[in-house]
Write a structure and sequence with these properties.
alpha/beta; seven-stranded parallel beta sheet; two-stranded parallel sheet; 8 helices; 18% strand; globular
Amino acid sequence: MKVVVFGGTGLIGRKLIALLQTDGHEAVSASPSSGVDTIANVGLDEVLAGADACVDVTNSPSFADDDVLAFFRTSTTHLLAAAARAGVRHYVALSIVGTDRVPTSGYLRAKVAQEELITNGPVPYTIVRATQFFEFAPGIAASSVGSDGASHLTPAKLQPVAADDVAATVADAVQAPPVNGYVELGGPEKIGLDEFVRKAVGGNAKIVTDPSATYFGASITDDSLVTSPGARIGGITYDEWLAAR
């Protein structure tokens, strides 16, 4: 197959392209650096010519509520229209477990809007919802620093997963028929957000467990960002990933 990966220069995009190429597919990276801009609607028809499938692993450059909503609405609208014109048979998008459970999160509201465009769109699709990545723990620590210089983090549970497992799940979805629905992926263990970050940063940062702390501005519970029954479970544990680092 010819598979076009929008956001192919990012963490998941790079891993996905390598996996697809190993499996014998023509995997093409599409990003602003290659002259493809999903917001400006530039280069989409050209890169999608002859494509069997496309994958959307793009992300907004700004996480401000209005900016991220505008990004996903505009980008996804342009991508779906271009994919339909090109006769693409499978549209695969990466989303987040719990998008519909945390309405106070501006980012997750934007992902809900993206998902709705895809589910109501003209191209057969699969949406892969994944939990938080192991790789983003340091960024969470940095985003949670209070006036006292410490990262204030809730003990509410996450089910984090390795980016390698995410890329493998998306690769499998691309090579399977469209499900016109969702595939969920989570890590093999549930862990409090505070402990998740503490393990990653070690003694390099001060972590304060605070049940009232928010997660990127949203309140979460133990059930907010974990998988539902029947989800795919990644094979790499957090401790294994940390040891390999």
